[in-house]
Amino acid sequence: MGAVILDGKKLAAEMRADIAAKVAELKRDFGITPGLGVILVGANPASISYVTAKEKACTEAGMYSEDIRLPEEASQDDVVAIVRRMNLDPKIHGILVQLPLPKGIDESAVIGAISPEKDVDGFTPENVGRMVIGEQSFLPCTPHGVIKLLERAGVETSGRHVVVVGRSNIVGKPVAQLLMRKTPGCNATVTVCHTGTPDLSVFTRQADILVVAAGHPNTVTADMVKPGVAVIDVGVNRIPDPTRSRGYRLSGDVDFDAVSKIASVITPVPGGVGPMTITMLLYNTLASAQRSK
Ligand code: GUN
After folding, report:
1. Reduced to 3 states, what is the DSSP secondary structure of residue 287?
2. Catalytic residue positions, numbered
3. Residues 100 and 183 in one domain
4. Which of 194, 233, 244, 283 is most open to solvent, judged by the fewest CB atoms within 10 Å of its CB?
């Protein structure tokens, strides 16, 4: 029997309707419109498409969005100056600097300039530290979206073995941290694998839940998983495809066709984790605006 396909688009639409209703209430009762400042440097095609989708989602939820696009040659000082201006702007409740930044710009310096109170990506050292020690913080959007998807699918995490493939600051490290927290919807035993793991399949075969954020298609194939595993595929890879008008198709990091025959649940790409990332960004921006009452 094939896996249940976890529909991230559907869950995202439901959550966004709820967020939009709360945005309308905040406007009506307090005259506050949640605002997101988005900074994109350079012309990375994937980043352009993510940022465009984030801004569209903001507008659809009734939020204000300020979109700053800088050329590839912009300096670190240029970017930091915009971040500092947004830190002080009362119309902006959340700041997002799209990563990766072009070479020559120190990401830590730029992220470090974001006020932790407006860090809706949850990337500043203050928010990462608070998340790790279990204090109130903005949770990073993709990991938070993964947890919401598991919850929606009714996948038990407590006491189960989660194997995370990938150790990025954006997904691998924080999703591992969240899933090991002693809170409902988490409390898992977590193993993190990465490019230094000699035989990935030794670990992936032990997984009850597999979260794959490796950044390469077919990182996980059917021979690498046990029957009944729940698979969350965070990868978004552009595969050249001349039959498509845009010249490529999207694929995750997991061999979906083969693994979906063995897994109990699996997220598709596109339409799985991606829409949830944007939704959790809206969620954090709303929360930040609510705190400004
Ligand atoms: N690049 C890839 N994912 C993300 C994300 O969630 N936030 C930001 N700011 N950049 C990203």
Report:
1. helix
2. 54, 98, 121
3. no
4. 244
CB distance 139 to ligand 1 below 6 Å? no
**Which pLDDT score is estimated for 1?**
73
Assign 108 a pLDDT band (cuts: 50, 70, 90): very high
The atom number, within ligand 1, closest to the CA of 47 reads: 1
Q: What percentage of the chain reaches a pLDDT higher than 70?
A: 100
pLDDT 10s digits, 226-269: 999 999 999 999 999 999 999 999 999 999 999 999 999 999 99
The CATH number of whichever domain residue 180 belongs to comes to 3.40.50.720
Q: Which of 122, 18, 12, 102 is nearest to 62 (CA)?
A: 18
Sequence-ordered alpha helix ranges (H) in the chain: 8-30, 45-60, 76-88, 107-113, 125-132, 141-152, 172-180, 200-204, 256-259, 273-291
CA pair distance 96, 86, nearest whole angstrom: 10
State the amino acid at position 76 in one-letter form.
Q
- Reported as a single tens digit per residue, the pLDDT across 46-96 is 999 999 999 999 999 999 999 999 999 999 999 999 999 999 999 999 999
Q: Domain range spanning residue 107?
A: 31-115
- Closest ligand 1 atom, residue 281 Cα: 6
Ligand 1 pocket, mutate which of 48, 98, 279 (most atoms under 8 A from CB): 98
- The tally of domains found in the chain comes to 2
| pTM for this prediction | 0.97
Q: Where are the alpha helices (DSSP H) in 165-272?
A: 172-180, 200-204, 256-259
Q: What is the total residue count of the chain?
A: 293
Ligand 1 proximity of 97 Cβ (cutoff 6 Å) = yes
Residue of 48, 58, 86, 96 to test ligand 1 pocket, by largest number of atoms within 8 Å of CB: 96
pLDDT tens across 191-225, in order?
A: 999 999 999 999 999 999 999 999 999 999 999 99
Ligand 1 and 99: CB distance under 6 A: yes
266 and 171 in one domain?
yes
